Amino acid sequence: MRRAVLALLMSVAPVLATAEDARELLRRMNAALTERNYDGTFTHVRGDVSETLRIIHRYENGRTSERLISLDGSGRDFIRHGNELVCYLPDQRTVLFERRAQARGLLDSIPVLDETTAAFYDITAAEPVRIAGRRAQLVSLLPRDGFRFGYRVWIDERSAMPIKTELCDERGQVLERMTFTSLRLPRTIPDADFEPTLDTTGYRQAHHDARADPRALPERTVATPAWVVRGLPPGFRLTQRGQQGFPGSGGPVAHLVFSDGLASVSVFIGDRGAPAALPPTAEMQIGAASAFSTAIEGHPVTVVGEVPVRTIRAIASGVGREASHVGH
Fold this sequence. Notes:
By secondary structure, this protein is mostly beta strands. The protein has four helices and 22 strands. The radius of gyration is 21 Å and the shape is globular. The N and C termini lie far apart (47 Å).
């Protein structure tokens, strides 16, 4: 019944294209996001919070550079060259240097579909409409179960760029919306556009290497034994394992990331007896973001992600240590 309601609410226009046509539109969009040069301003709305940002993306000689700037609010500035990301955080007076395991784009609210992911969504395309002066075609991704949210993407017919995206819950309610208010597609973008303009004098510098695997680090730097999640919801798979700081944890914690190709979930596991970020068995949902906290063998466990609460609970219930570490 709930799926039928979502299908009805997400079908805002008559379906005119085949499923393969819809997938081809998404493939073109994914290629455009990766291989085009673009410079645009967009609004990002999550719940009652709205932010205006600028994205600059350059693809040159097989190398990607990106910059994402908050034009109001925090004033944060993110600059990425390949796997190297620098985050300028004026509200925290911090510059964070991060080396990522994968060269993920900064427009993470855009669904990137692969053949494995497609098996968990019904994908349709509908009649083109005009958005921001551009003719765009709507592609809807309707989840086939209750473990993920649905998406609507309006794709520019000429450039294949996503002009507008929406993340929707099972009732069809919009949890997040991203809309470009301006978009340029220049042939070249100068290096100067990727230089920070913020004066960081007196800022703290922090470093994070997301490529690290805690099992390969010296024992004194490992926050926890090696952890796994058993009985994952359909389609979710481990995509990253490492260590990361977490507010209130008092030190680095084990960090596992699971994804179905569109949605991702992070699992943070602290040392035995360490302070928990949330009260035990706490559960929260703010817009599309869900969080759940529990304790496994005395280790505080926090699971967060832009997925339904039932997905967060299912992943939390499967957290355990690898067999070789049980009893240690």
